[in-house]
């Protein structure tokens, strides 16, 4: 894992790496998921996994207790008591070649791919996010449909800001939350920016600034979970191949559990919700 997704690539605030497990423990079955939540831990144990690899850290912030009376403590107890180790690969897997944003770029058919924000040591292929070009320019609505069809189904769907008939060719992507990277998106002169968890103020300000000029970048807001789940099969395959090259054989399974935190969405539309202005 260190050769594929070096911990040196993780952000200073991150907490990737080994979370639980004995160094001498044999690893035969690996389970992959985005979030180290209880349902995922139960699934890993049920499938007889020796190791659970998740994208998101369990202990991103310090805790004072790992008692099973807390939800994080219960996850740790479930795994440890069933001899299942836990390793997380978060921003190091975002930045590495073949990481989260690379997989997104490949699935969406981008070419001439480069990092959106290169890592500090100047490695030209590694960094947060990716920028690339479409083989053939298309309408924003058409491209948004391609993004939607590529994502696992979640309640929130895909939100789009921009002219549906606007033409897009250059695409910026950040798997997970990326509303802190708008300056890089503008530097690359991307036509559209795909990321997750776009908050109101950064999104509104980005659109207002865009409309002062070329109206770019358009915005496509996707599910945080969905955008990062797409990396899991590629990550599992890469690790299996790397281990096989060293003479080790493991079996991998990717969780199909939807751990997006939202269960359903209500929107206004014909025959659903009527909004009245003023008083009746």
TrEMBL record:
Keywords: Metal-binding. It comes from the Bacteria. InterPro entries: DUF34/NIF3 (IPR002678), DUF34/NIF3_sf (IPR036069). It holds the Pfam family DUF34_NIF3. Belongs to the GTP cyclohydrolase I type 2/NIF3 family. Homohexamer. NCBIfam families: YbgI_SA1388. This is GTP cyclohydrolase 1 type 2 homolog.
């Amino acid at each position: 894992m260190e050769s594929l997704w070096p911990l040196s690539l993780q952000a200073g605030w991150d907490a990737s790496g080994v979370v639980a497990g004995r160094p001498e423990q044999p690893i035969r079955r690996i389970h992959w998921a985005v979030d180290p939540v209880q349902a995922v831990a139960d699934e890993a144990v049920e499938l007889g996994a020796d190791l659970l690899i998740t994208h998101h850290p369990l202990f991103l912030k310090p805790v004072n207790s790992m008692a099973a009376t807390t939800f994080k403590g219960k996850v740790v107890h479930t795994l440890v008591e069933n001899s299942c180790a836990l390793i997380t690969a978060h921003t190091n897997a975002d930045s590495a070649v073949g990481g989260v944003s690379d997989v997104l770029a490949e699935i969406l058919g981008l070419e001439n791919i480069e990092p959106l924000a290169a890592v500090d040591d100047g490695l030209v292929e590694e960094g947060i996010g990716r920028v690339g070009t479409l083989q053939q320019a298309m309408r924003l609505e058409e491209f948004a449909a391609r993004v939607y069809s590529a994502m696992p189904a979640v309640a929130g769907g895909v939100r789009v800001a921009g002219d549906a008939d606007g033409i897009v060719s250059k695409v910026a992507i950040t798997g997970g939350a990326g509303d802190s990277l708008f300056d890089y998106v503008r530097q690359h002169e991307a036509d559209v920016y795909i990321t997750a968890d776009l908050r109101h103020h950064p999104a509104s300000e980005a659109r207002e600034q865009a409309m002062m000029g070329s109206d770019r970048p358009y915005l496509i807001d996707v599910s945080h979970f969905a955008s990062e789940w797409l990396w899991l099969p590629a990550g599992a395959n890469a690790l299996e191949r790397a281990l096989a090259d060293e003479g080790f054989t493991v079996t991998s399974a990717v969780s199909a559990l939807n751990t997006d935190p939202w269960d359903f969405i209500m929107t206004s539309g014909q025959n659903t919700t009527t909004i009245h202005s003023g008083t009746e």
